[in-house]
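Quick note —
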Amino acid sequence: MVLSTVLAVLAAEAILRVLKGGPRFDSVEDALDYSEKADPDPDVGRHTNLEGLIRRSARADLVFELKSGLDCGFKGVPLRTNSFGFRGREWRLEKAPGTLRIALVGDSVVFGPFVAEEEIFASLLGQRIESATRGAIPRGRIETLNFGVPGYNATQEAELFAVDVPRFAPDMVVVGYVGNDDQLPSFIEDILDRSSGGLLRRSLFFEELASMTKEEKRQLVRGTRELILDERIPGEYRRMIGWPAIEAAYRRMGAVAKAQGLRVLVTIYESEAGPDHDPHPRASRHEKLARLGEEIGFELLDMTAVFGRIARERGWRNIVPLWVNDENGHLNAEGHRLFADALAEKLASLGWLGDHESLEPRYPEWRRGGDSNPR
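Predicted structure written out below.
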């Protein structure tokens, strides 16, 4: 009986790994070589991960980067990248006179998977700024440059901030923080996980069938994965993990911002928000980040708190209605619209949009000196 049960579990595990897995690689380098040579597929449903869409970077702190000139599908929507290897239209290095240029740096939350390019908050921000300034800054004078790359962590984002962003001389930079910014880049984690070869390291079968809530399952998988992968993490990637990596990345960005005279706003987004998550399980981390930001001169917009308030106003227990689906905490089109609203109002209230006052914010605590900023 025991033997038959074990065999059944192993069979189920094997089926799930075939269905959910992908090519197995001996190393991250092999995976990047495979991806660089693979041709992107124009079918919007074809690419569910980054294989074929990224290439190895010559810069150690980036590890990988999006291929330039992509015209394909990714996560169910069309994807195009410009000649610089970032999502969206072509960019010019030179800024036209009278243009307000805003750079947005981050991971998939800024990039906006599962959502059409024109519906992500990076694309909507110009329209929202025009509204927040009562037309004093028309959207035609606003450029938003989306430096978001799926799977990036704080170390990689700091490299973009320090090297790529200054080339475009933006007037301000928005940096998106999420809870996994102190973890391995998700592409690398996925490769290590798939190449582990041991069923007991991470059982897809028990992940699927464990009798627990979705949130409990996510927390268990997150914690288990960190423990399992720790001994397998190549030495060159260990420096990207943990709070020291966050602090080093933000201090690097702070030094560049000071040298370049850049205004920087950090947004915090966690997919767990709303009454079900009060107080937030990572509130202390957010407060720690806010203190660090204050020290280096960064402003803060806590979108987790903003979305939590929206959830309470709408009678929701959480913000799952703003997710792409109930298993995936990336924002849907409505979530991106609300993000753009909050971001535009915050920038206006800080006085960063010239002498123009914002419209009366939906959430007065966003104004400078409000008590929602945990400083």
